[in-house]
Amino acid sequence: xxxxxxxxxxxxxxxxxxxxxxxxxxxxxxxxxxxxxxxxxxxxxxxxxxxxxxxxxxxxxxxxxxxxxxxxxxxxxxxxxxxxxxxxxxxxxxxxxxxxxxxxxxxxxxxxxxxxxxxxxxxxxxxxxxxxxxxxxxxxxxxxxxxxxxxxxxxxxxxxxxxxxxxxxxxxxxxxxxxxxxxxxxxxxxxxxxxxxx
Length: 198
Known about the structure:
Blueprint: E1 5-9, H1 16-26, E2 31-35, H2 36-42, E3 48-49, E4 63-67, E5 75-79, H3 81-99, E6 103-108, H4 113-122, E7 127-132, H5 135-145, H6 152-159, E8 168-171, H7 177-189
Parallel strand pairs: 1-6, 1-7, 2-6, 3-4, 7-8
Antiparallel strand pairs: 4-5
């Protein structure tokens, strides 16, 4: 049986991590989870820049936070060449894992044309899932988390699905993660283990 490669693409705080955790519990084989946040977390804080308190734009860096196009507060990371090199290698790593037989699910947030091209070109055998959530609920979740710079939900919501097509689209606004995970399981594996789902 060939390995599965699943990509969940959606805005910050849309519930992708909760779906992935539920999907891992359902999967008939070990399902490895990764995502863009793993590589963002490894990027040095010294090379991340923020706008000034006076509203001045963030200085050029490997990753700088800039004003997004959604309702305020609205922020989005802008990646430099160095971080785009990291993301290019991340996509290659994910593809190699699957080619070596590892089932993999990726929590992705595609925010610019470079990363979109990398993802589509390298993860060409992936099962792509678009994750949606009502905007007001997304903002509520971001505030409730207490561990995020407020405004990334609005910023990512505005652009994450640009020029994307999906094999499956999910809405997390009111549907629990375990139900959505079952939908993914059935969509990717067909009737394999279907008796365990219901």
